[in-house]
Design brief:
The structure is a homodimer of 220-residue chains. Chain A has 220 residues and is α/β, with parallel strands linked by helices. Chain A contains ten helices and eight strands. Chain A has an eight-stranded parallel barrel, surrounded by seven helices. In chain A, strand 6, helix 7 and strand 7 form a beta-alpha-beta unit. The relative contact order of chain A is 0.15.
Chain lengths: 220, 220
């Protein structure tokens, strides 16, 4: 599934197992633009779940694997994600330019998003010192985009200034981690990633509609 | 399988699929002390391969997942690795103290190794600036051990000075990445990770025996 350039919502599909994932998606897939997988569900359900979800719901899948190893390993992970049908993958900036360049070559059509900053408090200890540098590298290497911390909109704004209008910015940290709905898109991001606010709700469909409504005024 | 404190060899089982993994292990498992998995084989073969390999060969398994996300995700990955029977897991120092502390709590009996430096050239760009700091954090948080770059023995020596005698040091970067067999253990490491020098050899059994012989004079 091709990933169009637009503003919207990425659903973080951080549930524990496949039945729960499909139950959730049957209800909310129509209200989100991209479906994001972290490792836990893929480890529990197998990599094929990416292929299956992409086909069944017709949405691009983002493999949020926070790739952070040496090139030979990173590139194998990237190829496996591409073969499974993912449309994008998250790769850490701190692996260095040689590894990032190599990752982009291995990725081919798969969109690489370079992680500029982790959203947890510890993200401020190390990753935050290099957020601008990672954003510069992403622009220089012509990555598809970057991840930026949606719970820190001033950082999103700065990252947009650095990467220019061509690169996509996806933001974690919305909802449970403190970022306000629409705040990151308002600061220049393309996508806000929402997880717990939807999947931990007793009524995920209603929660997703609420998130959609809250973000709607900021969409471009 | 419990992981004893000793010096020895970690086999990086970086082959593409399960048949190849078992073929390789049938030949060489007896000659190594720990079996290390990266994500590519686990993604291709499923997480169960960790359980199966641990039982079949009676060796501790190191899940080299280079965990590098926010705590909620890291800790789920860690629990899945523990449930699959891994004895150890690699976690990036870069995620910050809150995430590392949380990872250690989630890990329980699973040994956490904090990555202090990536072995690729780009590892010198970002991770290397914090190698000593990551080693200090590992000692402070009483992690089981650290990973250090075996292709840079002077760094291994420095890391050993910082972490003291109690923590284990496992070293990547031996063989294909330039580190000499025995060089890291000679510099204070407990384990040298060897992958391509064994699994890419036309005769892996003979290659493993050669590695064993080359490292033997340095074992303690």
């Amino acid at each position: 599934m091709k990933w169009e350039r637009k503003t919207g919502i990425v659903l973080a599909l951080d549930v524990a197992e496949r039945d729960e994932a499909f139950r959730l998606l049957d209800g909310v897939a129509g209200m989100v633009d991209v479906i994001k997988f972290n490792y836990p569900l893929v480890l529990a359900a197998g990599l094929d779940i990416i292929t299956e979800v992409g086909k069944r719901y017709g949405k691009p899948v983002l493999a949020d694997f926070k790739v952070a190893d040496v090139p030979v390993t990173n590139n194998r992970i990237i190829r496996l994600a591409a073969e499974a049908g993912a449309a994008g993958i998250m790769v850490h900036g701190f692996i260095g330019i040689d590894a990032l360049r190599s990752a982009l070559e291995a990725a081919g059509e798969l969109k690489v998003f370079i992680v500029t900053q982790l959203t947890n408090p510890g993200g401020l200890e190390f990753t935050a010192r290099f957020t601008e540098e990672f954003a510069e590298i992403a622009a220089f290497l012509d990555a598809a985009g970057v991840q930026a911390p949606g719970n820190r909109p001033e950082v999103v704004k700065k990252v947009r200034e650095i990467v220019g209008p061509e690169l996509m910015i996806v933001c974690c940290g919305i909802g449970a981690q403190g970022g306000k709905f629409g705040g990151a898109i308002g600061a220049g991001a393309d996508f806000e990633i929402v997880g717990r606010a939807i999947y931990q709700s007793p009524d995920p469909v209603r929660a997703a509609a609420g998130v959609r409504d809250a973000i709607a005024p900021f969409l471009k």
